[in-house]
Amino acid sequence: MVSVFKQIAEDFKSVYRRDPAIHSKFELLFNYPGVWAISNYRVANWFHRKGFKLFARFIMGVTQFVTNIDIHPAATIGRRVFIDHGIGVVIGETAIVGDDVLIYQGVTLGGVSLDPGKRHPTIERGVVIGAGAKVLGNITIGYNSKIGANSVVVRSVPPESTAVGIPAKVVTKGRDKSPLSHNKLPDINKELFEYLLKRVAVIEHILAPEHKELLEEDKKLDEIYEAFIKSMKQ
Question: What are phi and psi of 102, to 5 degrees?
Answer without folding.
Answer: -115, 120
